[in-house]
């Protein structure tokens, strides 16, 4: 009979009711379509792969990203947090089943004659072997199940957060590499400008000695030369900082990476991001940061169920079954069986409002989680809309900037020829040099910004899962 009772109690505990509110995903607080300034092209060949190698095709960039995924310390921390959350979920899930243990013991006692009723010294000894269940809670109201559900959702949220960080790391490494390429090319351009202005400074000095140029021309040439030197030093400083950032993101000195392929120039870089034609809900709800926010909301919802169950009586079972004997040899003889069964029921009567306060905390945290989820979607909508709009506008801006750089280059050649022939003044030449330098520098900056926008689009639209890797299940 006792075995039947225990089995029935276990079945009731596992199939207990739940006080957790039914989860409903909040409506996405964004428009049903992208803004009018975002132009999407429908295509039957949309990029659907989640492998980052399908987007970042330049060999050196691939090598740097792969090294970062192996060596980056922050990614290691994020991955370890997944293991920590998984273990916490395992601990909480284990509370839904009884903790069964086997025990063996031996006890001896002696009482003096002065304390004995019979007036004789009393000695006793006992041997026990038991299988016991200690303080197993029958989860009638789903308190333990709700806590387990919350722990599982937190585990999934941590997993999605790691995927979001992984996407950010890939994009950050690509952006840092692009910044290094941009600054290297701009530094080379500045170095060439320093040499050119040094040559013109010398030429102006000779022309002044010959009486062809004035002191004003000499001072302008000196100022232009020093200005170019200052710009060159500034770009060298920025380049060193960009290289240091790349080393930090990779987690290993790039100069010491063996077998790293050679790279392409900034102009020849390409990132394979296709225009995606999904509606905002389809594009945003699969983002790992949005999925992580939703899992945190699910955990907060489950904690409400656990807080509600604390108001109701809890039933715990403690029992054991085994054998007992005064002698070790008779431990397993017939008639030596022993068992105990101690159910207990606890009904909260007065807790000074602790349970009510815990429920208020759980409900407030759900409100916070809902707002956090909605804000995450709004931020994601703005980010993707801005990037899609910027991608198209930057293509136009880059074409115009490159055309301007080409025109300024031709103008510089003409003015240089006129100056050599004594037709144009040095001020006109200096103006042409400045305009050409600024146009070339601007073209490099816009090109890098265009590529950075593509990397950010990968981060904003990818799910963060590799082929064969599963996402957290949708609620």
Adjacency order of strands in the biggest sheet: 1-2-3-4
Shape: elongated
The helicity comes to 55-70%
Count up the domains: 1
Explain how this protein is built.
The two termini are 41 Å apart. This protein has a four-stranded antiparallel β-sheet with strand order 1-2-3-4, covered by helices on one side. It has helices at residues 2-14, 59-71, 73-94, 143-209, 215-250, 280-284, 288-309, 354-420, 426-461; strands at 100-111, 122-138, 314-325, 337-346. Residues 42-47 have low confidence and may be disordered. The protein has nine helices and four strands. 33% of the residues are buried. Helix 4 runs antiparallel to helix 5. With 475 residues, it is of the alpha+beta class. The protein has one domain (18-99, 139-312, 353-461): Outer membrane efflux proteins (OEP) (Up-down Bundle), CATH 1.20.1600. It is elongated.
């Amino acid at each position: 009979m006792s075995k039947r009772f225990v089995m029935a109690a276990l079945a009731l505990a596992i199939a207990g009711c739940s006080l957790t509110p039914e989860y409903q995903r909040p409506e996405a607080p964004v428009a049903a379509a992208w803004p009018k300034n975002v132009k999407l092209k429908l295509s039957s060949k949309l990029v659907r792969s989640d492998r980052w190698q399908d987007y970042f095709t330049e060999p050196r960039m691939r090598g740097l990203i792969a090294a970062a995924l192996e060596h980056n310390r922050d990614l290691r921390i994020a991955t370890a947090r997944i293991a920590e959350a998984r273990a916490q979920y395992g601990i909480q899930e284990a509370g839904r089943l009884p903790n069964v243990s086997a025990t063996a013991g031996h006890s001896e006692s002696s009482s003096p004659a002065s304390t004995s009723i019979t007036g004789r010294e009393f000695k006793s000894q006992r041997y026990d072997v038991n299988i016991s269940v200690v303080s197993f809670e029958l989860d009638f109201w789903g308190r333990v199940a709700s806590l387990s559900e919350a722990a599982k959702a937190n585990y999934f949220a941590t997993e999605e957060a790691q995927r979001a960080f992984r996407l950010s790391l890939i994009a950050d490494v690509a952006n840092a590499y692009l910044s290094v390429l941009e600054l290297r090319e701009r530094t080379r351009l500045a170095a060439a400008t320093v040499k050119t202005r040094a040559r013109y400074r010398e030429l102006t000095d000779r022309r002044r000695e010959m009486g062809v140029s004035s002191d004003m021309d000499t001072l302008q040439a000196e100022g232009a030369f020093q200005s170019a030197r200052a710009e060159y030093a500034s770009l060298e400083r920025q380049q060193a900082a960009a290289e240091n950032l790349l080393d930090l993101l990779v987690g290993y000195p790039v100069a010491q990476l063996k077998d790293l392929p050679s790279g392409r120039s900034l102009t020849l870089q390409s990132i394979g991001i296709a225009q995606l034609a999904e509606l905002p809900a389809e594009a945003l709800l699969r983002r790992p940061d949005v999925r992580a926010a939703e899992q945190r909301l699910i955990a907060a919802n489950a904690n409400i169920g656990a807080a509600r169950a604390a108001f109701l009586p809890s039933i715990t079972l403690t029992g054991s079954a085994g054998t007992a004997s005064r002698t070790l040899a008779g431990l397993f003889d017939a008639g030596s069986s022993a068992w105990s069964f101690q159910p207990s029921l606890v009904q909260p009567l007065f807790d000074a409002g602790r349970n009510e306060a815990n429920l208020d905390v759980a409900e407030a945290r759900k409100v916070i989680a809902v707002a956090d989820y909605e804000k995450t979607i709004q931020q994601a909508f703005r980010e993707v809309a801005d990037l899609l709009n910027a991608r198209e506008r930057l293509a136009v801006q880059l074409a115009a900037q490159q055309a301007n750089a080409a025109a300024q280059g031709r103008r510089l050649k003409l003015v240089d020829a006129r100056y050599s022939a004594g037709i144009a003044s040095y001020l006109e030449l200096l103006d042409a040099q400045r305009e050409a330098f600024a146009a070339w520098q601007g073209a490099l900056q816009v090109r890098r910004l265009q590529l950075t926008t593509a990397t950010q689009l990968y981060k904003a639209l990818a799910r963060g899962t590799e082929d064969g890797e599963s996402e957290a299940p949708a609620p």
